[in-house]
Amino acid sequence: MNVELFQKAGLTEGETKVYLALLELGLTTSGHIVTRASIAKSMVYPILEKLIRKGLVSYIVKEKTKYFQAADPDKLLEYVDEKEDELDDVRKKIEDVLPSLLLKQKMSNKSEATMYLGIKGLRTCHEHFYKKLKKGEYYYYFGVPEYQPDEQHIYWKKDHIRRVKAGIRCQLLFNKGTNREILKNRNSFKGAEARYMPSDVKTPAAFMIYKDTTSIILQHPTPIAVEIINQEIADSFLEYFQEFWKRSKKFI
Fold this sequence. Notes:
Elements: H1 3-8, H2 13-25, H3 30-37, H4 41-53, E1 57-62, E2 65-70, H5 76-81, H6 88-106, E3 113-117, H7 118-126, H8 129-132, E4 138-144, H9 150-166, E5 169-174, H10 180-187, E6 192-196, E7 205-210, E8 213-218, E9 224-229, H11 231-247
Parallel strand pairs: 4-5, 5-6
Antiparallel strand pairs: 1-2, 3-9, 4-7, 7-8, 8-9
Helix pairs in contact: 2-3, 2-4, 2-6
């Protein structure tokens, strides 16, 4: 694989080696990464931390041991988009190798629970619904917090534009106390309906459900998301959502 190509996309040589190693290994520990990536043991954790902040790597903890996993390869395109004018040629080349990267990932074993850190990691987790939902299908949120960082409101507006183009629908339940203008904005997008939670219970975390996936998302003060892929868990959380939705009132 052309390491220089990934460096032009914004990754260092070490980050590229670790990311490609993770694509091939799937869920694994740092020791295996050191061997496969051919890097110094002292460098593996600093490199993994950088990749986590960039939203390209996530991890879970099993029996006090961290297991790392590469994010979807198409996240690399986001780095290219930030330099679209000067890196247009790089984008095309990454698109060319994307099928082989996806194949590497499919050949590895995936975990059922994945943790994402930072704003970019949170967004990576949220945007996974584009890979599973078809036109006309829904995702559901409940417990959306009263406060969210301003940059997140900007992101959600852009994401709703993308969602509308994909023909995907959503139902959103915001905690009471949330500014009415926020609900008014979300309801202005086609295929979205936002309401207030029917209960005064407020939590800083929100819950997203679709298909076999449940995501627990905390946006402030430390952005973190936990994605659980399990049909029974998703069905259970969807029942909670449907009960809340049934008791909620249409936003006026």
